[in-house]
Please model this.
Amino acid sequence: MKQFACGDVVPGCDARFEAEDDAGILGQVATHATEDHGMTEIPDSLVQQVTERISALS
Model:
């Protein structure tokens, strides 16, 4: 299992995500970015930041 905290990239956001793999996290984060942060496009630089901060669930 993997995990990601949005606050690691967007200060003040307390959303957290868990999935079996990076792709599952990225799908959830894309939906969150659109619905909660109003993003209409997800820049490659943001995807890279998220990917670098995905960790194994401890």
Strands lie at 2-5, 16-19, 55-56. Residues 22-37 form the longest helix (16 residues). The two ends are 9 Å apart (CA to CA).
